[in-house]
Records
---
Amino acid sequence: MHIQFLYYEDCLSHEEGLRRLREAMAIEGVQAPIEIVKVETEAQAEALRFVGSPTILINGVDIVPVSGEVRYRLTCRTYRLEDGRFSPLPSLEMIRAALQKAKA
Amino acid sequence: MIPLAIGAQAVPFALIGVDDKRHSLSDYADKPIVVVIFSCNHCPYVRAWEDRMVAIQSDYAPKGVQFLVINANDPVKYPEDDFPHMKQRAAEKGFNFPYLYDQTQEIARAYGATRTPEVFVFDSTRTLRYHGAIDDNYENPAAVKHHYLRDALDALLIGAQPPVTQTPPVGCTIKWRG
């Protein structure tokens, strides 16, 4: 499994996001290296199709596919949690669900 | 950028609000406490906290606490932070405070604000008494352990010193022009 963690340093929650990803991988028994990508320029954001920090890709697929108008830029990403609340991070359960889907 | 120091005086401003009226700090001279919050539309931290902003304003308005919420983000880089989108967000969320547009970014710079949301609490003499985050958990309101803003307001309303006067603001960086 190819796991990528893309982040923009100004978004303060990326360390918690990475910790959460590692926790989800441990729970799901996924043993794979995490490719950590620091996105530092708008050009890099465009090239990587980076919609915001953090973004987690599993085998190249975003764990929360983006719909509607998409902008690639250095920004913090908004996730909609299971209960409807907004968060700068995906929940542990969202990451686990994506890992389960990739394993299936 | 260096933020206003605790004990500093509020910087006066007059900014257009989503109600298309100009709001000056001096318009609220009768309020015992004014809370200036730098905010915006797009930031996930703001979105996580904005229901709490509405709730806190609602809870403390009868005690004379007035929130003034200011968006200074560059709408060229972040079109969802432009004035029409501010009006839309205020209507959607039922903002119960003026939501003001700092188009020149002069006020954000004068306050030394760097993030959204970032809170500045001023007492009746418009002296800064608390600066920082709303509370200690952006993600889960039920898991908040330290209600920094509420605690500061409670203290000031009884003439006491806020138990915590400064915390690091947690949020997105303000999007400067240029």
---
Amino acid sequence: MRNLVTALLIFCGCAFGADSAAIAIRNAKIVTVSGSVIPKGTVVVRNGLIQDVGENVSIPGDAVVVDGEGMTVYPGLVDALSTWGMPGTAASGAARGGGRGATTTAAPAAATPAAPPARGPEDRPSTTSWIKAADEIQATDKRIESARSAGFTTAAVWPTRGFFAGQGSLVDLLTGEKAGEMVLVPSLGQYISLTRAGGGGGGMGGGFPSALMGMISYIRQIYLDAGHYQLVKDAYAKNPRGMQRPEYDRALEGVLESKRILLPANRWVEIDRMIHFAAELKQPAIYYGIREGFEDRSVKYLKDANATVLISMKWPEKARDQDPEAEDPYRQMLIREKAPTTPAVLKKAGIKFALYSDGLDTPRDLQRAVKKAIDNGLSREDALRALTLSPAEIYGVQDRLGSIEKGKIANLVVTKGEIFDDRTKIEFVLVDGNKFVPAPEAAPAGGRGGATAPSGPNGVKK
Amino acid sequence: MKTFGLLIACAIAACAAANDTFFIRGVDVYPVTGAEMKGVSVLVQDGKIADIGAKIVAPKGMKIVDGKGLRLYPGMIDSNTELGLSEVSAERVTVDTGELGEFMPQLKALSAVNPESEHFPVVRANGITSVMTFPASGGRGGRGGGGSQYISGQAALIHMDGWTWEDMEINRSAAMHLIYPSIASRGGRGGLANVDFADEIALLFAGGSAAGTFTEAKRNYETQVAKLTEFFDNARQYQKERTANLPGFKRDLKFEAMLPVLEGKVPVAVPASRERAIHDAIAFADREHIKIVILAPQELGKEGPELKSKNIPVILGRTEALPENQDAPYDYAESLPGEFYKAGVKIAFGTFNNEFSRNLPYNAARAVAYGLPYDAALKAVTINAAEIWGAGDKMGSIEKGKWADLMLVTGDPLEVPTQIKALYIKGKEVDLSNKQTRLYQKYLARP
């Protein structure tokens, strides 16, 4: 039986491969990220994988050859925490609050039917831990095209609403008909936020929990419940006879199947708090937000805890159309000024980090956001790594993604000029070996909105 | 029988006369408006100061108070309270500070004053003999009245003692409380003192704040100003029709109440915390040719020369206050009165409160520690307030002909250790015991 399955799999693989022609990019500068830069080399892509890369690589006879003279090949960019493709998260305008950094991800815009207010943890308020981004994602989301025009080929997409928002999935940014094709890893872990699923409000009429202490106690309770649930389930599975059947709880199932948690931590006090919290919960954690990561205290806490963080690239900005006579508090101005130095500071301290879009989705905004980190002291190489190999390592997929190496998934960005420069033009991107050319107006310098039109002989998959 | 009746009548008259007629001997008088006079005597007759001097002698049979080693000051005036209108602010039935509605000039705070309020004895125990009591906006009793209020009614200057509010009245229409619109956009200074907490909340309930842009706030402001201007235009039209006495003229209480304001007899009292708000309020008063008093400013900015040249008085809030935002200097509230004084602005103090009205002298004292000259501080709680609220000829200093609103004290009234030996309102000695002294006695007696 097993042999048959294996045989079938191999057969399928071959059949798939037979349909797909190779693409070879030659005479291009290749920034592998994992190794040294190849000044003039060739990348051969076949079956959605990198077949070969190097200075002297033979080009297969059936390959479509792209002359890469004057071009640079980079690994496709990875958004380490994204909502691209998640329904109801597109309203980026809603997330542009004050410069204080109130929102961590795009605020939910869609109205969900009102549930009766929760009385306590037993009602599992704002909990959808069983949801997987892979099951929710919409390949038709315009932001996917838009992000691809900025050089992003992969995203760790997460449900972001509620205390236990659900499980993130690693997806390739394809715009096919079936979302399933996009998925690399269906479950990356559990997204935890301290924000009610309904968005605004809280307090009055929202039910339990309405305060931070209630939220923290709720998360604690869920992990206690999950531990107990596992024990009872195991005991029941071992010997069900004479034992009362444990009640199925999808919220706890969702928590138990998540292998890591994402915890919100913007201010240094939150970073400290969340590191302790993760230790108490005994869960492998990744901290996201990190707007005050530049503070000495933040660095110390993160370093001591050997923590891994995801840094929001939505750098706090001054509110638009503000009262001209209003003076922002010093702290706010400080965070605005210093937040973009966080990547450089953490790099220097040797803390593992990746960058994430946090609601940004236009090529222009994304390019500017990365550029801002570079202008604030992060080297170009480190910026690139924080958007390629680092997120791959953080999510444990460095054997498949994040650099240009033989056998890795063929996610590439081909540019004229240095990536992240505002005048650089992205020639095309390869996602799973499929070529997408950014529409002219969607090039990084070109402004807002953008569509990538699949083109070329191998443009459209199947 | 007839003679007996007459005798009783005489006795009552004598008693009544004795009640507000007395002689203080050998006291140090601090008249506020002039230099101090050591070891003089003061004659009070029928509630008024009849004479002050070293050589005057007490008429025969008159009650004599020995003032040896004591000082005599005029009673102090708190220029902004809600005394008599609100007893326990959280308890609805004890609050009668205002009414709903956008324009309520016809409301008189005086008629709502409860002479039995427990606040009066507590406040006057510290030497405060009269206060301004202000109607508040929006009917505090009923929450969520909705809508903004522009005019909340007439503020009254009252004495701190009397059987009825009529007894207490000094000036029933000392000011019209006008809430001038302000550009209320979020962000920046003002509002929340504890920004860290707000930060936390904003983070927890992302998107919960109805931030509002400046453009929006400005448009809103302009609409409100237009509305207020229209009301004044209508009042002026009413004034014309009233003078013309046209047939079919209908009396309107609201506009009737506005007449003294339009005629410049009653000032509008306008809360304005920011420089821009002060500027806008003054500009409005100029346009409407009305008198104005600024309440509770939080900064002076560049408004000094304008306030000074236009003779616009300012009622300063409590100096016993936290800095209004996280970046403000620690002495923010304390040094503000000094700044206004140095700009040549006429100032008085208000506690904007009932519970802490008794701390009026200490608010002034703190300002002294941060740059306000002592004399100016003392004037700000006495004569300045009397003048601002239209009673400068009757009270606020120790002068012949003025009411005997006096405090007999052991030292400087702005100093905390100073004890009040006796307090007189219109020459009548008032009881210094109050709820707090009663509670003190009660628990002192606890075994």
